[in-house]
Amino acid sequence: MPLRPSIDAPTQILLRTSGMHPASVLTPLLIPAAALHAAEQFRFDTSYQVYDESAGRMFIESYYYRGEMYFSEDTSFRFQILRDAISGSTPLGALPGGTQPFLAELEDVRNGVLAALSQQIGDHRVELELSHSRESDYLSQGISLSDKWELNQKNTTLSFGLNYLNDTIVVRGTDDQNKRSYDLFLGFSQVLDRKTVLTANLTLGYAEGYLNDQYKTIQRTEQVPIPGGSITIDRLYRENRPSTRLRGVLQLQGTHFFDQANAALDAVARFTQDDYGVSSQSIQLEWRQGLFRKLEITPFFRYYQQTAADFFYNSLDGLNIGKPQTYPDGSGLNYSSDYRLSSLATMSLGLKTRWRFTENMAASMTYEHYDMSGIGGDQAPAAAYVTASMWTFGLNFTF
Q1: Is residue 110 within 8 Å of residue 133, measured between CB atoms?
Q2: What single-letter DSSP state applies at residue 240?
Q3: β-pairing verdict for 59-70 and 138-151
Q4: Which DSSP string corresponds to 66-95?
Q5: What value does the CA radius of gyration of the chain take, rounded to a whole number of Å?
Q6: At 26, is the secondary structure helix, strand, or coil?
Q7: Do the domain assignments include residue 103?
Q8: How far apart are the C-alpha atoms of 49 and 389, rounded to whole Å?
Q9: What is the pLDDT of residues 88-131, one digit of tens each?
């Protein structure tokens, strides 16, 4: 069920243990029986995450299992398994206070798995990654190929890769729909000195096919004739986003270690632009403080803002489009009242702690507070925006 809060919106701290994608029963299927004996090293971590929006909105419990093993100095394999249990309510597309319900109840479970094989070839680290994710009404399958090229005595790294996703969406009342996504990734990382690293990444993405959220609607107030007059009703129609989307993402990052403080500062700036008309900017700061040799405390902050899509409307009132399509296909006038496409800003504040019990075992805990609000002239109703808390608990093992 794609009606979920965007987990891109809450803070994505670079070194946090929480991931995006669990079910440990699948683990033996990913690892040959002899692999653990052949591996020179095996790393495994598991985490449990709770995402809880205020006012009884979305509640998501996530379980993650990740592992990485080294068959030799040049060859490694990693995997990730996830399970998300999703429940709660989300804005359907109607305006608050009308005759149509503003919130819709939903419940679903998502299971996903990712597997990647990495091989060192000279100065290049080549990785092939496969992914699979399934919900009751959404199937996603992906493949990506990437390369890291180390130069200048490993002080300079060039990265590039390609990613392809093929999604199948169940749309009630009609045939299943298809969506395809293509991403090209380019990256550059430079070690300036033993304390400082600078990184720049550029991603170009293109998606085509069914890009609507099949559950999102938009309201129109209409006059319906009845004997002796007419009555006013609010009708809901499915949204109609364009059938293609082109976007670009530029991310700049700097990391510096402070000897005297035994701490590191990570600063990340991110800029996006797409042909929906959505442009966004975000800044993220993270201070990793080492204490007592075994403890690391990391406060973090993230601010994000975006403009609205060109086709964002709170309702269809005043738009001359005739009768909207029953099953929109992206043609004609585009429209959506999805608050995630409005002009908005989000802010996240959080604290992560990590305690290393031994050289081979560590535990972590993260709390994050997330707040979203409308800004500018193309806002959704205030009731659409959310405030949320997120807790993550993790364990890490190295063998």
Answers
A1: yes
A2: B
A3: unpaired
A4: EEEEESSSSEEEEEEEEEEEEEEEEE-SPP
A5: 23
A6: helix
A7: no
A8: 11
A9: 999 999 999 888 999 999 999 999 999 999 999 999 999 999 99
